[in-house]
């Protein structure tokens, strides 16, 4: 098993600091509590002028059993009746949005996340789709991107057939690890046959893309045990594989307190797992897009990256450029025009706002010109693994090398260490720099604390 590039463990460990994942810029930590419903309404209205397609994200917070590693906004419950009032409130949120949003705009993207969207019954899924269609008008276009996250422990072949009938054409299946010892340690017992059966049926039904989620750095994992998981996943041949870095933050996430720190792989072993992952997946024909995403060369994400149109949002990488993102549900985040807005993260607060006929906007931020320049620079770095300063200059009417002189100065040390090269006015992440792309992006972050702390996850 050959390494895809020269591996420098000492360099990786030196740069393995805490930092943002940059699913947005500014990051969540810059959102303001004095940003409320009226600011969000104004952004919705402004967005109509450009007429960009819409991307809808629906957050379903419920799951039947809490996994110990989880850091999502979720509610563990076996009471299926909680879904009915929640769907009604989602519909109320849509109704309150409509006066400010031109719903003739195409819904090019739809994503259901959680929690576990497959917590819903088939009838409830139909009900929610009907409400979304009635309020926004869902697309039947062939190139639409309608995805849902599935827990293989809760779904079966009938679920997949139903989802296809509802218009979904992409599936993301949570796997995390196939080793039974690791599964027991994270409270997620999931026999391989469950995942294989769903993948086979999804392939037979003709779903456009299948994604499997894995996590490295979980308790009891070793490079050999995770290699065994990767062998099985590669044999399943999904179009996309996400391999997330487990961030152990028990002081923030209660569920993680059930994981014993002494069971976690040490820094050296964790890097070895990452090295094994990249070598095995690239050896099997997957393209390392960046961060934690791998995809087949024919996948739309790889094509978008090659064409320079790849984007990054709260759901990860996206091939649908220039959509306005409307988030629905508790904790959901919207990116509309020049604004980020987040709903209340506590279900009771979310419900109370809607019951009072108010949008459940809890906080957010309106971007300054400087924010927009830096957001563009960071997104292009994260998506292209490169940054064209001439393109940035033309887009914003600035002299980018002068405007971003401070960021370029901060990159000089990274350039000396071989993480980035400068060719004319084009910054290019080196192969090992791609693994540390978050660190490169941090050079452009004007809002980052001088010493980013444990509020952010580690980079590697």
Automatic annotation (TrEMBL):
<protein>
    <recommendedName>
        <fullName>Coproporphyrinogen-III oxidase</fullName>
        <ecNumber>1.3.98.3</ecNumber>
    </recommendedName>
</protein>
<dbReference type="Pfam" id="PF06969">
    <property type="entry name" value="HemN_C"/>
</dbReference>
<comment type="pathway">
    <text>Porphyrin-containing compound metabolism; protoporphyrin-IX biosynthesis; protoporphyrinogen-IX from coproporphyrinogen-III (AdoMet route): step 1/1.</text>
</comment>
<keyword id="KW-0949">S-adenosyl-L-methionine</keyword>
<dbReference type="InterPro" id="IPR058240">
    <property type="entry name" value="rSAM_sf"/>
</dbReference>
<comment type="similarity">
    <text>Belongs to the anaerobic coproporphyrinogen-III oxidase family.</text>
</comment>
<keyword id="KW-0963">Cytoplasm</keyword>
<dbReference type="InterPro" id="IPR034505">
    <property type="entry name" value="Coproporphyrinogen-III_oxidase"/>
</dbReference>
<keyword id="KW-0411">Iron-sulfur</keyword>
<dbReference type="InterPro" id="IPR006638">
    <property type="entry name" value="Elp3/MiaA/NifB-like_rSAM"/>
</dbReference>
<keyword id="KW-0627">Porphyrin biosynthesis</keyword>
<dbReference type="GO" id="GO:0051989">
    <property type="term" value="F:coproporphyrinogen dehydrogenase activity"/>
</dbReference>
<keyword id="KW-0479">Metal-binding</keyword>
<dbReference type="InterPro" id="IPR007197">
    <property type="entry name" value="rSAM"/>
</dbReference>
<dbReference type="InterPro" id="IPR010723">
    <property type="entry name" value="HemN_C"/>
</dbReference>
<dbReference type="InterPro" id="IPR004558">
    <property type="entry name" value="Coprogen_oxidase_HemN"/>
</dbReference>
<keyword id="KW-0004">4Fe-4S</keyword>
<dbReference type="Pfam" id="PF04055">
    <property type="entry name" value="Radical_SAM"/>
</dbReference>
<keyword id="KW-0560">Oxidoreductase</keyword>
<keyword id="KW-0408">Iron</keyword>
<feature type="domain" description="Radical SAM core">
    <location>
        <begin position="48"/>
        <end position="284"/>
    </location>
</feature>
<comment type="subunit">
    <text>Monomer.</text>
</comment>
């Amino acid at each position: 098993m050959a390494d895809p590039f020269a591996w420098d463990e000492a360099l990786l460990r030196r740069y393995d600091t805490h930092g943002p994942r940059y699913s947005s810029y500014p990051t969540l930590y810059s959102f303001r509590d004095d940003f409320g419903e009226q600011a969000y309404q104004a952004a919705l209205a402004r967005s109509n002028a450009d007429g960009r397609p819409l991307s809808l994200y629906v957050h379903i917070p419920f799951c039947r059993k809490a996994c110990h590693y989880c850091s999502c906004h979720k509610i563990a419950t076996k009471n299926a009746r909680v879904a009915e009032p929640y769907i009604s409130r989602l519909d109320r949120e849509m109704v309150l949005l409509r006066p400010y949003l031109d719903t003739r705009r195409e819904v090019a993207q739809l994503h259901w996340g959680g929690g576990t969207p497959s917590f819903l019954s088939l009838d409830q899924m139909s009900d929610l789709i009907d409400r979304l269609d009635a309020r926004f008008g869902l697309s039947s276009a062939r190139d639409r991107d309608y995805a849902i996250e599935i827990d293989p422990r809760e779904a079966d072949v009938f679920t997949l057939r139903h989802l296809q009938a509802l218009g979904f054409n992409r599936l993301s299946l949570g796997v995390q690890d196939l080793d039974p010892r690791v599964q027991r340690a994270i409270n997620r017992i999931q026999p391989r046959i469950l995942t294989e059966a769903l993948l086979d049926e999804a392939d037979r039904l003709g779903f456009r893309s299948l994604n499997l989620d894995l996590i490295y750095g979980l308790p009891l994992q070793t490079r050999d045990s995770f290699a065994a998981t990767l062998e099985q996943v590669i044999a399943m041949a999904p179009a996309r594989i996400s391999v997330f870095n487990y961030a152990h933050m028990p002081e923030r996430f209660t569920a993680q307190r059930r994981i014993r720190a002494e069971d976690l792989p040490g820094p050296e072993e964790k890097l070895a797992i990452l090295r094994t992952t990249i070598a095995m997946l690239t050896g099997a024909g997957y393209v390392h897009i960046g961060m934690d995403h791998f995809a087949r060369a024919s996948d739309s994400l790889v094509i978008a990256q090659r064409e320079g149109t790849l984007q990054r949002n709260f759901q990860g990488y996206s091939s649908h450029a220039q959509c306005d993102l409307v988030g629905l549900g508790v904790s959901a985040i919207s990116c509309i025009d020049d604004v980020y807005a987040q709903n209340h993260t506590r279900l009771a607060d979310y419900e109370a706002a809607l019951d009072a006929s108010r949008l459940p906007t809890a906080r957010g931020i309106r971007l300054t010109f400087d924010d927009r320049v830096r957001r563009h620079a960071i997104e292009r770095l994260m998506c292209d693994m490169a940054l064209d300063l001439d393109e940035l200059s033309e887009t914003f009417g600035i002299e980018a090398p002068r405007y971003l002189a401070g960021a370029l100065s901060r990159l000089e040390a990274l350039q000396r260490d071989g993480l980035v090269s400068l060719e004319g006015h084009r910054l290019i992440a080196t192969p090992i720099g791609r693994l540390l792309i978050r660190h490169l992006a941090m050079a452009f972050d004007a809002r980052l604390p001088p010493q980013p702390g444990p509020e952010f996850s580690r980079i590697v």
